[in-house]
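Collaborator request log, item 7. Partner lab (contact: R.S.) asked for a structural prediction of RNase adapter RapZ to inform their binding assays.
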Amino acid sequence: MEFVILTGMSGAGKTLALRSFEDMGYFCIDNLPPALIPKFADLCNQSEGNINKVAIVVDIRGGLFFKDLQKVLENMPMEVNILFLEANDDVIIRRFKETKRSHPLALDERIIDGINKEKEILEIFKDRANLVLDTSNFTGHQLIAKIKEIFTKKGEKEGLSITIMSFGFKYGIPIDSDMVFDVRFLPNPFYDPELKHYTGNDKSVQEYVMAGNKTAEFLQKLEDMVDFLIPCYVDEGKSQLVISIGCTGGKHRSVTISNKLKEKLERDGKRVKIYNRDIDKGK
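Returned to partner:
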């Protein structure tokens, strides 16, 4: 089991970091009292492998409970990775002022007083951490991307989950689309009596659509566009991407192009699933 304890300075970005772990499929808990960590670890071990990646935020918000963390870490029956987030004092102060929140240790004092108290309490855990990450110069998106870069193991597929959705314009554009491509200009098998009742999942329909003068050129440009955009979405911290491809009825051309794009992205090692929204409509 991969077990990560996420701790560090208030205002250093632990909430955003936890979001990154959620995107990577970790079972995540925020502000768990340290004394409950071994019990939760036991529950995970009893899950028969269904929970094999865990990330838990433990910090000074736990108040009196937080003092148990050192003892808990010393007695954990498994290897625990500690990720410690910190930032410059001026950055933390600015972040608290922007959010109009009080520092947990400075409810009636200046923010800097709370920061100094917190540094003293957390020093032992910073020294013990497997990784200390200074987030002073990170935007939210950059922090999310950095966490994913660090904790995505070599050989795993890219963290972005891609859904290619074929649809028919006559039934409306999917509202969860990130990109929409119109392929109604391609040859339409609907008007061929022998192909009308087949779909873009059938070889005969695919051959008909791909035989069009502009189809191969369009597909190449579509693949180039997607290749350009995917890293941009990853850099922005996006974890799910919906690429919608539409024709008139969502049965022939859009399904064909969706299948071709899926094949290409899978060859590139992407996590892709396909959803043919309207393929069974209009029968």
